[in-house]
Amino acid sequence: MHKLFEIVGHRSDDGVHDRLHDLEHRGLVVRLVLPTAELGRRRFRATGSDGQEYGVALDREAVLRDGSVLRLDADGAVVVEVEEPATLTLRATSREGAMQLGWHAGHLHWRVRMEDDLLVVLLDGPAADHLARIRPWLDRGAVEVVE
């Protein structure tokens, strides 16, 4: 297992980007693809794009994010990439639906983003669990699921 203990930069940092680009052309960049929920952890194991196991143990102050570089040297690099979370897209079709949808999203601490008149829920569990919470408004047509 390869062990990584620090964030050495970000792929957009001056100098880092060019070095990563050169290493990518030589096939020496390993990607650790992590779910968004893992970014808050400081100690974890992950399998890299090279099929190897990586053990990560970061300081408490470290802030892991998409593009964090955990290793960068002449022999290669290890870069964190965030996996796109599954989403559930909802639209309120009435004022009642909008109020209920907004209340539930806030009260239940759903991670959301707004796209025009749509509420996109970033799922951290089965979509059915989220839909069960708003079932009465779905059944009445006050809220609809957008495919």
Automatic annotation (TrEMBL):
Residues 16-79 form the UreE urease accessory N-terminal domain. It holds the Pfam family UreE_N. This is Urease accessory protein.
